[in-house]
Amino acid sequence: MDAGAIFQTFSVLLFAHLLADFPLQPERIAINKGKIPVLSVHIAIVTGAALAALGYFAPAIIITIAATHFTIDLFKSRKGTFNLAWFLADQGAHIGVVAAVSLLWPADLSHSLIYRHLAPDQLAAVLGVMMLGSGFIIAVLAGTYAIELFLKPFGNAAGVAPGLPKGARAIGQLERLMIFVFTVIGAPAANGLLIIAKAILVFGDIRAQGQRKYTEYAVIGALASFAWAIGISQLAVWASRYFLPG
Question: Is residue 128 part of a domain?
Fold first, then answer.
């Protein structure tokens, strides 16, 4: 079994899955996937992303991904609840399928319209960037939903409206993006400065609010967002080093 082909396949299909499930999935599709026509549109996007990322039609890979994605999303939409556990279970199941497919049917990228003309070092660079792209999507975009769902019960207890306001969502995404960039370029000290700056802002806001429940909510949210971004970013950098030297 060619470990290189397995990891190449995993990198390509993971990136395709994350593209389809986050940047390419509008909110109106995400909240209506219990309806077969809406879910079918999403599966078409998932299938198209996998085909585009591979650059050729591999029947076993494409059919398995489409069928399992349909089944997982339909089950979650109709049986699950909108909370962090179901969100993580859903993504874990999809990524587990990507890993299984990569092990069972490693793609031959020499058949790909995209990769077959690339030199080995060029292919490695492309796949390394894909792995970093996957890290970016998980850290910044998927992190939005993970943190909001994590905070949902705390927000209820603190009297905060469920779901963060769009301004807070944008700030969180920008913070996690900065952490991701600082981690990729090897500047962890900058992350420390960002955390200090955030702490100053949070505690300044806390003094203005003067409410203990809000204080705890703000601190929990900031810590959760930073921890998610730092952990995922470090993992993405580590995984990309399989392809990218240094």
Answer: no
- Does 10 or 205 have the greater pLDDT score? 10
Is 85 in contact with 27 (CB distance < 8 Å)? no
pLDDT at residue 204 greater than cutoff 90: no
Residues 100, 162: one domain?
A: no
* Pairwise CA distance, residues 31 & 26, whole Å: 9
pLDDT digits (tens, 9 = 90+) for 45-103: 999 999 999 999 999 999 999 999 999 999 998 887 788 999 999 999 999 999 999 99
Is residue 110 located within the same domain as residue 203?
no
Structural domain range at position 213: 136-240
DSSP state at residue 183: H
User: Is the pTM of the predicted complex or chain greater than 0.70?
Assistant: yes
Q: Dihedral angle at the C-alpha atoms of 60, 62, 64, 69, nearest 10 degrees?
A: 180
Give the integer Cα–Cα distance in Å for 185 and 174: 17
Picking from 87, 116, 145, the residue at the C-terminal end of a domain is 116
Residue 169 and residue 111 share a domain? no
Residue burial 129-160, b: 16+ Cβ < 10 Å; e: rest: ebbbbbbbbbbbbbbbbbbbbbbbebbeebeb
